[in-house]
Amino acid sequence: MIPQWTLLLATAAVEEVAEKGKLFDFDATLPLMAIQIVVLVLVLDKLFYTPLGKVLDDRDEYIRGGLSTAKARLAEAEALKTQYEKELAETRRESNTVIVTAKAEAKKIADGQIAETQQAAQVQREQAQQEIDKQKQSAFTALEPQIEALSRQILTKLLGAELVK
Amino acid sequence: MHMLDGLNIINPLPLAALEVGHHLYWRVGGLQLHGQVFLTSWFVIGLLLIAAIAAGRNVQRIPSGIQNLMEFALEFIRNLTKEHIGEKEYRPWVPFIGTLFLFIFVSNWSGALLPWKLIHLPAGELAAPTGDINTTVALALLTSLAYFYAGFRKRGLGYLAKYLEPQPFLLPINILEDFTKPLSLSFRLFGNILADELVVGVLVLLVPFIVPMPVMLLGLFTSAIQALVFATLAAVYIGEAIEGHGGHEEEH
């Protein structure tokens, strides 16, 4: 049955349209609708397009401003960084030279002191040696007569007094 | 109509009735009006106004809720207008193009989504305002006025020179274009919306269960596309009137 219904329905609809021609029924709806739309455009312009458009523009401006400030700050930071890096390198080099010179100086001083001390020690040792030698000499010379006497005594003891004379 | 009445008795669903070309006539001071068109158009306008007021009432730099939605719509409209009218001239035309788009879009979707037919009128039935030829012709004529205004305002009487471009013997065709533009605009919209409504109506009448769903979804898609097409073409016509005919291919 359904196909017949469709047919009936279609013919009925077409007859309706053809009979009354109300599909293309122009009347005062047209101009009034146009006026209504124009008023809607004006009202929405006040309520919607202008305020929200302003918000969008302001936000764009804000973001752009923020972006450019951030960019400027970034560039500034970059410049500071390179400057600091340069200063750092310079300082490092300076400190290096200071360290090297200080080391050299310290070595020189240490070397000098060591040499001086060694020399002084040498001198003292030589003096001491001389002293010892002298004392030995004097001790020998002092001991000479005693040796004489002792050896005589030993002889006397061994050989007897008569023989010694 | 007897046949249809008989069908309605057989059919248990209240949605399934088909009426074409019936209007709820209002008479205001000797003028004849289509009442159902005005009722639904007021509903659509009211919806737009409520959304606009809700979005613009307390604007924030960081948007949320309805403001976010409406900003998205505004940005979409701005981009569309900018693309077709050009960076320099598009700003004054945003309200017009935007209102065309929003009105047609909300009208079409209200016709496709809302069960208007549950509300019984003495005659005719409620449907999308864009399914009535008066509405679409009104919108199309406004578009024509808009692009004439744009052309004359930008280029003065020099605007008339575009009728002789690119060759003077094309004058009749160029004049004809001024008639075909509103005609194609209005009939495209009217035909699409009415056809969609009729197809859905017939299918609901025959098989009131599940089967009309894909067609309804297709109708939603068509409705959105038609709003976009109307707004885009309006923007293209205005842009064309502003920048002149030379070296600009028209899209149809």
Describe this structure in words.
The complex is a heterodimer of chains A (165) and B (252). Chain A is mainly alpha-helical and 165 residues long. Chain A has one domain. In chain A, 93% of the residues lie in helices and 0% in strands. Chain A starts with a helix and ends with a helix. Chain B has one domain. Helix content of chain B is 65%, strand content 3%. In chain B, strands 1-2 form a two-stranded antiparallel ribbon. In chain B, helix 3 crosses helix 4, helix 3 packs across helix 7 and helix 6 packs antiparallel against helix 7. The N terminus and C terminus of chain B are likely disordered. The interface between A and B is large, with 44 and 57 residues.
Provide a concise account of the structure shown:
Chain A is mainly α and 165 residues long. Chain A has helices spanning 2-20, 29-159, 161-164.
What is the helix tally of chain A? 3
Q: Using DSSP, what is the number of strands of chain B?
A: 2
Largest sheet entry of chain A: none
Count of DSSP-assigned helices of chain B: 7
Number of domains of chain B: 1
Percent range for helical residues of chain A? over 70%
Main-sheet strand order of chain B equals 1-2
Would you tell me the structural class of the helices and strands of chain A?
A: mainly alpha
Unreliable stretches of chain B (pLDDT < 50, length at least 5) are 1-16, 246-252
Helix content of chain B: 55-70%
Average predicted local confidence, pLDDT of chain A: 85
Strand residue percentage of chain A: under 5%
Compute the number of structural domains of chain A.
Answer: 1
Radius of gyration of chain A: 64 Å
The computed structural class of chain B is mainly alpha
Give me the secondary-structure topology:
The complex is a heterodimer of chains A (165) and B (252).
Chain A: H1 2-20, H2 29-159, H3 161-164
Chain B: H1 2-10, E1 25-28, E2 31-34, H2 35-56, H3 65-85, H4 94-113, H5 133-155, H6 171-206, H7 212-243
Antiparallel strand pairs in B: 1-2
